[in-house]
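How a chain folds remains the central question behind the approach discussed here. No coordinates are needed to read the tokens, only the vocabulary itself. For completeness, the protein is quoted in full, as a sequence line and a line of structure tokens:
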Amino acid sequence: MTSDDARVTRNVMYPSFQELVPGLLDSKIKADDQLREMQEDAAKIRAYYSPRRQFNRWKQSDDGVAWKVAQYTHQNGCCAMCNKAIECKGSHIDHIKPLSKFPELATDLKNLRIACADCNTAKGNKA
């Protein structure tokens, strides 16, 4: 570093702006890369804990399978919407208040019932 390129204050030499810029740009690029990686990780975490995935994990758990069988029995093997007889296997677990509008009720047992595939599909995200 020459005296033309740097400021001298109390016998301490500071780098000039031109000398600092390449290092600052490199640091910014690294910080941007780290931020992008953290945002991707955050998106994966949000997806993992999304209400739909939370419900699907519960539905496939021992508790979810046991609930479905018990609810099917409680409903006398009938669809809660059209009251037609249905098989437990292939029946749907319906959210009375739709998951898309009430994500906080994803696994609230009071918001779930057994329905035939036709009724549940036709209902869509309507309450």
The domain at 49-123 is CATH 3.40.1800.10 (His-Me finger endonuclease fold). The first strand starts at residue 7 and ends at 9. Residues 17-48 form the longest helix (32 residues).
